[in-house]
Amino acid sequence: MTDGKVRINKHLDLSRLPTHIAIIMDGNGRWATRRGLPRNMGHKAGCENLKKIIQHIYDLGIRYATFFTFSTENWKRPKDEIDGIFNIVRDYLNEDAEQFVEKGAKIMVSGDYKKLPSDLVSAIDNIVEKTKNCEKFTLNLAINYGGRDEILRGVNQAIEVGKPLNNQEDFSKLLYSADIPDPDFVIRTSGEMRVSNFMLWQMAYSEFYFTKVYWPSFSPRDLQKALIDYQGRKRRFGKI
Ligand code: FPP
User: Fold this and answer.
1) Ligand 1 pocket, 141 CB below 6 A?
2) What's the pLDDT at 213?
3) Is 2 a member of any domain?
4) What is the pLDDT of residue 2?
């Protein structure tokens, strides 16, 4: 998290913000390639931007934020790129742990994170433990995460319990996101218009926003623009 103060757009109604915003941070690689840099420099820049955007989401008073950090499909990338991403995430969590506690920010993880390298698993366990009583803001990092995997995991848990679930809420409680509300608003950067196996169950009634801006360039102003767009939507949840 950073401490940059950002002017609020006069069209943004601070009383009608989403409770939970989820972001697919896409375009780090292209951002770097365009600048003649190695792809991992794009992830580094993506991490710096993540700090800025988390701070802005927090300053706006949005209660929950989920960021798609590493998908179950991202293992198909070259090893040095994967290692680079894991090192960036590990350093970020280790360096910012105290700041999260000071700000009352709880860190949680969606995904099979125990399969990640042991230094990253320790960094995650450490920050989750340190921030477990924080209540002002929840940051959910989706890491080694896949929506279908998550659903399958929930189904297997239900089978283990051995009796039918009463309702959808009971199934939601079997997911990584059991303790947080579904995302109201999902943003994907870089111009791709796909869901890419992200929060498949939780996004049933989310509003979507796609922008061509690459993640490292997605600014707090861009975020406000997206939120203004969100506020212009009529959410009907199947009603008329
Ligand atoms: C997608 O861009 C981005 C990723 C797969 C990695 C996201 C990781 C970070 C932003 C690092 C920091 C994260 C944390 C939580 C500290 P891409 O590589 O698919 O871009 P491309 O589509 O242009 O190739």
Assistant:
1) yes
2) 98
3) no
4) 56
Q: Residues 130-169: pLDDT tens digits?
A: 999 999 999 999 999 999 999 999 999 999 999 999 999 9
- CA quadruple 91, 121, 146, 206: dihedral, nearest 10: -60
Asked about 74 being catalytic, the answer comes back as yes
Under the banding of pLDDT at 50, 70 and 90, the label for residue 236 is: confident
- Asked if residue 237 is part of any domain, the answer here is no
Q: How far apart are the first and last CA of the chain?
A: 40
Residue 191 lies in a domain: yes
Q: Does residue 85's CB lie within 6 angstroms of at least one atom of ligand 1?
A: yes
pLDDT of residue 239: 85
Positions of E strands within 72-228: 105-110, 137-145, 185-188, 207-210
User: Backbone phi, then psi, for 14, in 5-degree steps?
Assistant: -70, -10
Residue among 3, 9, 13, 26 flagged as catalytic = 26
| Euclidean distance between CA atoms 24 and 22, whole angstroms | 7
The pLDDT value given to residue 122: 98
> What is the CATH classification number for the domain harbouring 60?
3.40.1180.10
Domain that holds residue 214: 21-231
The CA 229 to ligand 1 mean position distance, Å, reads 24
In a domain, 48, yes or no: yes
pLDDT of residue 5: 78
Closest ligand 1 atom to Cα of 216: 10
The count of structural domains within the chain is 1
